[in-house]
Amino acid sequence: MDPCQAPCGAGPDRSAPPHRVDAARTHPVACSRSGAAARRPQSHRYRRSRAHSVSVSRPGGLLRTCGARCREGERGVMTAARCRSSRTLLLYAQDNQGLGHVTRTLTIERSPEEEEAAKQHFRAIRGQVLRDVALGLAPDLVLVDHEPLGSKGEFREGLWSLKAARPHTRFIFGLRDIMDDAARIRTSWQEMGVYRAFEELYDGIAVYGSARLYDVAAAYAIPSSVHPKLEYCGYIVRDPPAHASAPNTLRARYGLRASGPLVVATVGSGSDGYPVLATARAAVDRLQARHPELAAILVTGPFMGASERAQLEARATATCRVVAEAETCELMAAADAVVSMGGYNSVCEALAVGVPLVIVPRATHKIEQQIRAETLASHGLAQCVHPRDAGPETLAAALEWALGRDRKAHARLVRDVIPAFDGATRLTAYLGRWLGD
Asked: Is the pLDDT score of 349 beyond 50?
């Protein structure tokens, strides 16, 4: 199937660029509206459906049932709020006397619709701000990261308007190699008009990865006409600290003995990393029973909940430290094995220092981290422990693999697959070429 072709039965063509605008004029961030539109924003996601109603004559008046049959003396309502993504909300309520429960339920039924309308209004404001900033700044080059047209397409109008107003501006899309399930990305890009943007809007696509590890053109069905625009810049890793501590100095800083294997466990920001660190803590207990000289440092990250961090801190010992924040690049360089979730930055940092790595990917509907972990494992660069299998014994066994690796041989293997981690330097040079530097 041609990825640029609109799906059958599609609604208004969201992929089409907006009408040409007068670049000399920028519109205010919020526009006033009058009449019904001002009183009640329209929702496109949730549509309130009319309940199936029947009126039954009875002494003393009418008994009205909406979707559900009620006993004498009761009033009931059963309504369905349906949204475009085929999700249906069923709400039921009944009253023996009065209308309190039914009224409250009808109020609740309206809430998703109003909330979605507010979200769409907020997105429209964001889109206007982005458009006005882009036109006002009049940049020579635009680098858009991750979402080619902005989150839910909020930057679409701004980008196309800038393209029309400044034909000489260069547009580059920064593509992290693994985004999510490839089929899901293809469908989303088709619906959003991304393939058309690759053809007509963007001058180049900078891929933050390696074609040897992940071929984005094949995965995301990028049209062959766009292939010349692809530029693999390699993996982007933060620069190490200017004055990194020697391993013995670092161990002394955390009160650990100078010898023996060191395990470092890190979960990025920590917002959803507690299960991984809790399992890692239990795995360390098992490893220390077999390797008494082993030490560990667990980094919770700044966004882990206070109660979760407190639970981990309560289990800290003289040979298993728990810290909220640390220079992870420095810790990884001193470690003999690393446990990490599967985020791009954490994984790249571990690979860059050549430390054997055990990845426990995030357990959500998005499988980006799982794909990354499995891809690296297939090249022998890491062990992947799926969240559903991530018990203490399983994680301890994976760490035994990491601790048993020859560190220098492992680093050589990493360099064979990924020769360099100079993506930032290569990206800068690539952008400079577009600017004529």
From this structure: yes
Q: Which residues pair with 75 in a beta bridge?
A: 95
Cα–Cα nearest to 336, from 267, 262, 248, 399 = 262
Q: Is 21 helix (H, G, I), strand (E, B) or coil?
A: coil
Nearest to 353 by CA among 432, 414, 264, 273: 414
Which is nearest to 337 in space by CA: 361, 357, 359? 357
Q: How many structural domains are present in the chain?
A: 3
Q: Write out pLDDT tens, residues 19-78.
A: 554 544 444 333 333 344 434 444 444 344 444 333 333 333 333 334 344 444 444 544
Q: Label residues 215-238 b or e (16+ Cβ within 10 Å = b).
A: bbeebbbbeeebeebbbbbbbbbe
| Domain span holding position 174 | 138-236+421-437
* Cα 123 from Cα 344, distance rounded (Å): 27
Lowest mean pLDDT among 13-17, 81-85, 143-147: 81-85
* Spatial separation of the C-alpha atoms in residues 420 and 400, rounded to whole Å: 27
Residue 37 domain-assigned (yes or no): no
CA 202 – CA 330 distance, rounded (Å): 38
Tell me if residue 47 falls in helix, strand or coil: strand
Q: Measuring CA to CA, which residue among 375, 234, 409, 299 is closest to residue 359?
A: 375
Q: Is residue 30 part of a domain?
A: no
Asked if residue 271 and residue 411 are part of one domain, the reply reads yes
Query: Which range (73-82, 116-125, 383-392, 407-416) has the least confidence?
Result: 73-82
